[in-house]
Amino acid sequence: MSRYTAAAEAEMDGITFRAWQGRHYVTLPEVLVRLGSFGLGLTWRVEIDEMVDPRCAEIERRSGGEGLDTLTLLSLTTPGYQLIDAEACGFADGELVVVLTEFDSSLWDVRSADETVLRELARHYEVKPLARTSGTTARP
Question: End-to-end distance of the chain based on CA atoms, in angstroms?
Answer without folding.
Answer: 19
